[in-house]
Each structure stands twice: as C-alpha cells, then as structure tokens.
Please model this.
Amino acid sequence: MTPDPVRRHSLRILAGLGCVPCLCGRSLHAATGAPRELRIVMGPEATSGRQIQQALKLRYPGLVVEAELADARRSAAAVMQLAIGSAGLRRALDTGLKGPLISVLASSQAYRQLLAQDTGRERASVTAIHAEASPLAQLQLISAIFEGRATVGVLLSDASAYLERALRQAATSTGMDLLVERVAPSADVVRSLTRLRGVQVLLAVPDNVLYTPDTLRSILESTYRRGMPVVGFSAATVAAGTLATAYCAIDDVVADLVDLLDPLMSQAVAEALPEPRFPHYWRVVVNDSVARSLGVPLNERILRLGNRPPGRAG
Model:
C-alpha cells in the first residue's frame, strides 16, 4: 500500500534523524524497554499535530492519541502526555492527570497563561518546547540582515514583559542596540510605534494583546510607510507581510521532541522535568516581495542561518 502524504513526511523526518524503525530493525521503545505510555493530546487544528503524531508513532509504537483521557487513572505516573498547541495544552490540563506533561507548538505566552490558571499542578511535572524561536535566534537573524550593529525596537505588553530579560541578553550577545517600549493596556499599539525613535527594525514577539490580525495589519502599514522592516515571530507573520523570521519547521519540532523524550521515556519512575525552553532547532523564512519593496538585500548566508537537526543540512 502506498503511504499517505503525512506518513511519507513522517518517514522523511525520521530518516533524517536516523531512526526509522524498519531500517534499524527495532524501535527505540523495544530497545530500551521504556515503561512509559505516551499520550498525545491535540486541539481541533490538528494538521501539524497529525504530522508530529505520525512521526512519533514510528519511534514509540506504544503511543496513544487522545485516548479516553478523562477516564485514565489520574495517579498514573507512568503516563506521559504530549500536548500539541495551546488548545491541546488546555485539554491536557483539564484532564486532571498529574503525570508528566510536555507542551509543544504553544507560544511561551500561551504556556505561561494556561499554567497560571492550573494552580493545582506541580511545576516540576510540566515543561515545554515553545512554538516560537528564541529571542537570541531572532537577534542573530537581525544581525545578519543588517550586517552588524543595528537598533532594534520591541513592543511589550504586561502579557509579554517576561521576554524583556531574554531580549536584552540576546541583544548583548549579538551586539544589537535594543529599545523596548512598554505598551499600557489602554494604549493604541500603532501610536506606540512613534516612541521607538531611531530604530531600524521592529521585532514582533508572540503577544496576543498587541498582535491581533487587525493590529498586525495596521502596524505593517505604518512601518512600511516609514521604510522600517518588521521581523515576525512565525512563518504565518512572514506570509502576512513581515520581512523575515526565525522559525521551527515540523522536522525541527520532531527532532527536538525526540531529544527531550528519549531519556524521559526510559525512566521507570517519574523525575522532575527540565525547565521550559525555546526550540533548539530553527531556520529562516523570508518574504522576498517585502524585501524588494523595502530595498533590503537578503543573501544566501541569511537564508542558511539556523540550527538544523543532526544529519539534516536543509
């Protein structure tokens, strides 16, 4: 039988990781005797989730997808849940299972907000690989675009203020000048741009208070008139009109998950999970038409930026 497109994509991902079961003769689960059951919880927007599910199923044959979570034993420490997307994370938290929980493809903001609402869960039992690339990856991209030092503007609301420390550390590491404007809850987001005087590029961060579809459109119109590029926080923002972004492809997400899951799946007794983090693997996507319109040259060196999973150059 010919594999469906998602299965072919999953095989390609795992081939790049060197771990397709049919090529090595046994799965990692069988090789390690991993005692855990891995359960995937997804929301309704499951296209990316299905690709991740198919890839992980090849590596962990005992994986269960959205089983009867509400009926599962709430004290089953050996059950590990993988929540895909913010909707999947919300569903996983709502089940009440106290075993290890890993969030993926939810923004750092969504993760923090949902965990703050779940006061009964021990923080050592939950972790995340956030959906967006790290502030350091974004500043490395901006540094490459501007060939050295540049002044980067960032708008932050109360909901994204936690990112300021990481942004300042990244700016110091890359030699960028950073101007942060805190936007009050009642303030006009577009007008707040006028206080970012002297910046050469605006870095947008995942913040559902500041960046709604309407405000993003208005911000792009305003910055375009000024000839100011905007570096987005996802491939979708690049499609919407930002210049470029560091982002994580599905291949990157799966490789990152395997790095995290392999040691955890081999533990017979639940241990504290590592701290939530930004993805290890990332790459660059650009909007060529925006670059041409703004007169920003984007060479091959910029397009090759990133950190690919081992064994994968492209």
About this structure: The longest strand covers residues 37-42.
